[in-house]
Every structure is written in C-alpha cells, then in structure tokens.
Amino acid sequence: MSDTQSSAEDADPPEAAGGEDALRRAPGADALETDAADEPRGGAFGRLVRTLLILALLIGFVGPVFSVAVYRFVPPPITFLMVQRLFEGQGLRREWRSIDTMSPNLVRSVIAAEDANFCSHHGFDLEAIRKAMAHNEQSSKVRGGSTISQQTAKNVFLWPDRSYVRKGLEAYFTVLIEVMWGKRRIMEVYLNSIEFGPGIYGAEAAARKNFGARADDLTPQQAARLAAVLPSPLRYKADTPGPYVRRRAARIQAAAGTVRRDGLAACVLG
Fold this sequence. Notes:
Blueprint: H1 3-10, H2 14-25, H3 29-71, H4 80-87, E1 93-94, H5 104-114, H6 126-138, H7 148-157, H8 164-180, H9 183-193, E2 195-197, E3 200-201, H10 203-211, H11 220-228, H12 243-262, H13 266-269
Parallel strand pairs: 1-3
Antiparallel strand pairs: 2-3
Helix pairs in contact: 3-8, 5-11, 5-12, 7-8, 7-9, 11-12
C-alpha cells in the first residue's frame, strides 16, 4: 500500500469534518454552546442547595437527639430562663442533687401539684389538655395542661415563649426525653432545673433558701409549700406563705398522701 493511500485512509471522513463546520455555522449554534456551558454551573448550584438542605435537616434532627443523649448522663448546664433572669438581675443559685438524695416528699408533692398522671402517660396528658382548653374557653384565667415531661423539655432545651414554634419543639423534645431518659431521669432533671423563686433553681437551692434544710430532709409540709409556689415562683413565697399558698399547700400535702397510697410515684421512687 502506498503512502498516499495510507494518508487518505487516516484522514477524517469529509462528511464528519463538513458536518462539524456546518454545525458551527448553523443558526442557534451559539445558544446551544451557551446552554451546554451553563448546565454544569446550574447542576453544581442545585447540588449545593440540596446539600445545604440535607445538612440543615440532619442538624435539626441529630442535634436534639445528641443533646438529649448527652444529658441522659450529664447534668444540663445553664438554661435560657436562667440567662434571662440573670440579665434581669435576679442572680443564680443552683446545686445539682441526685434523685436518690432528694426527699420522696418532694417527688410526691410535685406529682400531686403538677402532674398526677406522670407515671402513666407518655409525655402528654390528653385529658388534662382537654380540661385546660375547656376551662380557658370559659375563663380569663389561663390554666395550663403541660405535664412534668413537657415542662422539663421546655426548661432545659428551649426559651420562655408562647409561640407555636416553641410549642412544636417542646413536643419534639418531650418525645425524645420520654424515650431516651425515662421517668426517673426526667424527674431528676426537673427537680434540679425548675424555678422556685428569684434566682433559685432546683430542690437543693430552694430547700436551703426557704427552710435552711437539705433537699433530702424536706418534711411533707415543706415539700408541699415548695410545690405550691411553682405556678408563679416569682410571686409566691414558700418560707413566708400567704393565705393562697397555705391553702394550696394543704391541698397538695393531702394529695401527696394519695400519691403515696396509690403508688402514683412508683416510676420514680419504686
């Protein structure tokens, strides 16, 4: 075979070369090239948006789960409410105590006062919510239907507010702590984080401030007084109770006897 024949065979077919030239000269060719060049950029932007959305969802889901898992074993630090009260000049007094070193009288009293069905519900007391809604429709005095689990979720993880966003997050955290903590840990965190007065948080600080006692030495009457101020701890005083707190504490002390007799605190006290 001659060199001339080999060169002719190696060359591109005339149709292909002519086709490319025709495509370059065809109307709209520039637009086709522009679209082809823009497609990778649009695809990259879309991937970035999808990645950011996935990260946001992961953070929104994994973040709360991780924090709840950590606080299953570690005492929760300062809360949003504590920070707010600090800025209001109320100070901060708190001392963590294990549930084993708290008086059973206090456990029974807060169950009697705040959540009689604490050991039987799964975070939400639907009957209490229904009664609260019915009461609020007929009265200007608002009654809450939140359980101890809901209050704990709000106090530890969220800010003090009445928005629907916060209520939705409260429900989510309530489910998490019910599943991951259990009743005994929920009560322990609750009694170490609840506000008992200006700058006073937790059972130990409240016992020392109001009665000069330790949390494990609280009598039935003292425990009932502490539970009696929980609806409005900045207004009512456990150490020098007024008529309302005395009446409420007497009812709570009697109800705490029912809690003990009927085993309504068994999920915490055994």
